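Hi U.,

Before I forget, here's the chain from the pilot set. I'm dumping it here mostly so it's searchable later in email.
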Amino acid sequence: MDERPTVSKGETEVLKALWRLDKGSVGEIHAEIARDRDMDYSTVQTYVRRLEAKGYLASQRIGRNKIYRSAVRKKQVIGDAIDEFLERMFDGQLLPMVRQLVDSRDVTPEEVKDLMKLVKELQREQKHDRQ
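Structure:
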């Protein structure tokens, strides 16, 4: 996991909006967030500044506007958040977290099928790695 500071819930919303846009100004990010929920422009601006300071966003000045884009891949941010959560809540143990997820939700037959497929893929990979 990177030594980058974790992101707050609000910062995560800003990152998700920017990932959907690929790049954008604070105004464009605000408009994207406003499609789903109410958040003040100044709040978005604050989150953008924090994310840039933490190294999650990069910016380029174009005319009077700063255009932001993610400086970190979405997959990396999600992985870091999951790793941090797993460590904090389950002492780094995967199986208790999976058990909690399965027990706390209505798992559909399609999801069970997908989980079984995933387990089989993991078994094949581990078998291949041992050879």
